[in-house]
Design a protein that fits this description.
Elements (H helix, E strand, L loop, with lengths): L2 H10 L4 E6 L3 H10 L5 E7 L3 H12 L9 E3 L2 H5 L6 E4 L4 H13 L3 E4 L2 H17 L4 E3 L4 H14 L3 E9 L9 H10 L4 H8 L2 H14 L2 E2 L14 H4 L14 E6 L5 E6 L3 H10 L10 E5 L8 H11 L12 E7 L17 E7 H6 L13 E2 L14 E2 L5 H12 L2
Parallel strand pairs: 1-2, 1-4, 2-3, 4-5, 5-6, 7-9, 8-9
Antiparallel strand pairs: 7-10, 10-11, 12-13, 14-15
């Protein structure tokens, strides 16, 4: 039977999947509202630091909800996670330290966990996936986010016997590596967005994190630190994202990448060494003989939080996931200074004034004594002058060792050497 058929059965039997959502901002409130129109799913808990966000989200849900049930609303996520009425927790906060606390509480409460928090996933996802699975619980990223959609495309191609040579996404806006909440403020207000969130998109951190998450899920690395980020379209993508020896820009294949020009879509570039299969691909994709033997499979949209209910349902009904790390980290997103930072200064994290993220391999991060951007929390300070564009390392930065995410990362580093 299909997922939808199974959800209809749950609705008919009043055997609802009970969902608690932490974070009622843009992503959380749209997810909450969407669930009101999906059979077999109900919202039983909503948490946000802003009561007005909670009320707005619940009102949107109740407008279409047809099931008579109570909803726990709280500014304390512990109350939602520990509720006996919650089957599965969704983290829609986007904040690494809060995400780490949600992870730990969900694990202790024996609740499945669905992440709309890429930032925490790339920082401590390997150890938390291991911990959840040891307890028979599902730990998963979300369908609809670019990494989750890309895993679907990747597995679609691989299950047909095709070789995937590149997996990537289109970037929604031009890279502005030195963006900060002040430079983003006007646009953020016009879009009803948090300026820090828009900063993380504009300065590239979000793109780096998303491709980092994909890398950890399929084992592909970035071709160069920060990826190439070229302009491309569907007509030339397969040529540009090819080896240098073939007229492209890549040093190697089987890499993750992003491009300007295809947003909000995602893509995989595939090939087959089998001449008959190659001929069939050429025929079915309607390309002529001038086309090389690399073919672009493209999905022109990702519906983010609106697709998340599929992950929630699969987690509870099938003990299945949308995206998770294969083991230890393959790639990391390190912190680069967006400005000159003086010794003794406080350093803010993702979406702030001090640093932006850049993808690199796990090995490169270790060799440079750097650390993931996600463990920068309140209390992080510069121990030396740090120049603009310099990578933050354990040699020039003092981290907050009391944070939950720092402690989990230490544990992950011990388990995955």
């Amino acid at each position: 039977m299909s997922l939808y058929s199974d959800l209809l059965l749950k609705e008919e039997n009043k055997d609802y999947i009970r969902v608690g959502v932490i974070g009622a901002g843009q992503m959380g409130r749209s997810l909450i509202s969407q669930i009101s129109q999906i059979p077999g799913l109900i919202i039983v808990g909503v948490c946000d630091i802003e009561p007005k966000n909670i009320n707005f989200a619940i009102n949107g849900y109740q407008k279409f909800n047809k099931v008579d049930h109570e909803i726990k609303s709280s500014t304390n996520f512990e109350e939602v996670i520990k509720s006996d009425f919650v089957d599965v927790v969704v983290d829609a906060t986007g904040v690494p330290e809060i995400g780490a606390q949600i992870m730990q509480l969900s694990l202790d409460a024996n609740k499945h966990l669905v992440l709309l928090n890429v930032e925490v996933d790339i920082t401590v996802g390997s150890i938390m996936k291991k911990k959840f699975e040891e307890k028979g619980l599902v730990y998963t990223g979300s369908a609809g986010d670019e990494p989750g959609v890309l895993v679907e495309l990747y597995e679609f191609a691989k299950s047909m016997g095709l070789e995937v040579v590149v997996a990537g996404k289109g970037k929604n806006n031009k890279l502005q590596p030195y963006a900060n909440p002040d430079t983003c403020l006007k646009e953020a207000k016009s879009k009803n967005m948090n300026p820090k969130m828009l900063t993380a998109f504009q300065d590239g951190t979000k793109t780096m994190a998303e491709m980092n998450l994909l890398s950890n899920a399929i084992g592909y690395k970035a071709d160069i630190n920060g990826m190439h980020g070229i302009d491309a379209n569907l007509d030339n993508l397969n040529e540009k994202l090819n080896l240098k020896s073939e007229g492209g820009i890549l040093n190697s294949l089987q890499v993750v990448e992003y491009v300007d020009g295809l947003a909000p879509g995602v893509f995989v570039i595939v090939k087959s060494e089998n001449e008959i299969v190659d001929e069939e691909l050429r025929y079915l994709l309607k390309v002529d003989e001038s086309h090389n033997n690399h073919y672009t499979l493209y999905r022109p949209y990702h519906l983010a939080s609106l697709e998340t209910p599929n992950t929630i349902a699969k987690a509870v009904m099938y003990n299945d996931y949308s995206i998770k790390p294969i083991a230890g980290p393959v790639s990391e997103t390190v912190a680069k200074a967006k400005r000159d930072i003086k010794k003794g200064e406080d350093i803010d994290g993702i979406g702030g004034y001090s640093v932006r993220g850049e993808i690199t391999s796990h090995e490169n991060m270790k060799n440079s004594n750097a650390f993931p951007i996600g463990i920068i929390t309140k209390g992080t300070k510069a121990t030396k002058d740090i120049n603009k564009d310099e990578i933050l390392t354990h040699d020039n930065t003092e981290l907050n060792k009391d944070s939950v995410i720092y402690k989990l990362r230490q544990e992950q580093d011990e388990v995955f050497q």
